Every structure is written in structure tokens, then in C-alpha cells.
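Progress against Task 2.4 (sequence-to-structure conversion) is shown through the following example record, which the project officer requested during the mid-term review.
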Amino acid sequence: MRNIVEIKEVFKTIDKEEILSGINLQIAEGEIYGFLGPNGAGKTTLMKCMLSLSTITSGSIEIFGKNLQEHREEILSQIGSIIESPIFYDNCTAKEILEIHAHYMEKNITESDIIRSLRMVGLKNTTKK
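C-alpha cells generated for the chain above:
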């Protein structure tokens, strides 16, 4: 099975403080990972680096076999994420929320794409909720 994520010797320093120190991680296709650790351990920082929301000081991050820094837009167009607190609109259905996100991301998403996505995550019956 191929690795979807490969993190090699990643370091992140902020104001001379080392936040990430030599992180190595491989995630194979189909695997699910969670990050556990105390506050300040670098979990959120690593996730932000993996999404190119924060730059690494040194090392490399590859996603789908491509270097994140060199292929940022291509990689990010294929993934989604929620870090820390998700934002939901109280008066919108799950379907409407996905339509809103597709619109501001300038994605040409059909209604059947949205229904298929909701079905994949077990939310098929929430189109009216």
C-alpha cells in the first residue's frame, strides 16, 4: 500500500522556540490517524503545516507522493480539513453548508456530488436537517 502522507524530519521554530522537532510520519492509503498529546505538544501546528497553513522551518512534507511546497494548490484541491473549531450555520442543512463551501472554493459541484459525499460519511438522510 502506498503512503498518502510522508513527513520527513520536520522542524518548526517560532520566535526561537522549537515547536516541532524532527517529526517523521508515514500514513498509508486507507489508514486513519489521530494526534494525541498535551496542550502545546505541536498537534495543531503539525496539522497546519500539513495543510500549508503554516510553513515548516526544515524537512519535507509529501502528500499523494508530491512535495507540499511545490504542489500546494494541486494537493489542497484534493483534500478537506477542519482544525480546532468547525463553523456551522445553524439555519442551514448539511447539503446547504456543502453548497456554500463549494461556492466560495469556486468548485463546480453538482447536487449528486453533494449527496454522494453525504452518503460516504453516513449523513445521507440529513439533506433536510
